[in-house]
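Lecture 7 notes: from sequence to structure.
We start with the chain below.
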Amino acid sequence: MSDFHQNGIITDFHNLTRRPVDALEAELVQFAHRRPMGLILPSLFSELEGKALSAIVDELTQVPYLSEIVIGLDRADRDQFLFAREFFARLPQHTRILWNDGPRLRALDSELEAQGLGALEAGKGRNVWYCSGYLLASGRSSVVALHDCDIVTYERGMLARLLYPVAHPRFNYSFSKGYYPRIAGGKLNGRVSRLMVTPLLRALKSVFGPLPYLEYLDCFRYPLSGEFAMRSDVLEGIRLPSDWGLEIGVLSELQRHYSHRQICQVDIADAYDHKHQPVSEADPSGGLNRMSLDIAKALYRKLATQGVTFSCEDFRTLKATYYRMALDLIEAYDHDATMNGLSLDRHSEEQAVELFAGNLLEAGNLFLDNPRERPFMPSWNRVQAAIPDLLTRMHDAVEQDNRGDV
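Predicted structure tokens for the same chain:
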């Protein structure tokens, strides 16, 4: 059972009583009259062929308060899109699929590229960005949640707890972030969060001082969780990263635009497991190797916008400071795992730390060598200023695809 401690500048919602999901959903049904709720599901077609997403859809069929579900479908040809329409047809909510590789949305993408407003590389960030645009165009939801499609321990109470703080009519939260323990198969998981982000934030504070941005990020129990909810108007003004820095980028944008009193985190599960990314030591373009590079660059870029200056010497100092702090944390994680009857491979943990330490330096070199890199996709406010009717045409394109005219 989680504790009641409030340990930072953002509000922490705990799971103190294991309140039944039916009770939460009964309240959310009432909240929905004032604040209609939607859900974004960014998905690869390959996830439709696994067990996790089918089980997630089964759970979502029982959710009574959602106004709409928007599914972003990547890496799908025509036949696969048609399969996806059948796959999701059992959902009772108003459900629409964005066929991101279809001719209609590709045409809109080309138009955005011609205006210098393209979504850069394909990936989860791009998928979420397009889903956000459609949701804004539909106007059906004033609160929207997002979670991944590979959660093998999913149950609908996760969604209810995630939405509750933002949907409650008496609360003033614009954004909620989910957290949970990363435990599965008798092992302690969550390597990038445990072994990179936590010690990196502490190392950055040690080298550059306790900046408000770093203190803010360090309040989050799981900053890399892919589960969050927000008011739909948040989607209009924030910029989303196109790379693996999506979760850190979203938190950074929230800190820039909103008071910390409008941001919260919520305990959404006692157990959480999903598809594990390989470390990919030999391939910097994939797995945890690529993820750690993108996260480090996202942090450097944000700090630079707040007046922090970097040099090669700074990055070497940061690497050494991070490495020592990460090794100390491995010992703490090992002892915690032992007390809880969990296993932890200290050798592989230290190998991961060595990889992440090298990537901190590499990310620094990339940051210094390419100061004009444009990692963020434009806000939808900017897109609408440049192409006022684009969201309307996106909505029409998605409706045509989902009616069967493909």
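Points to note: The chain is about 50% helix and 10% strand. Residues 312-339 form the longest helix (28 residues).
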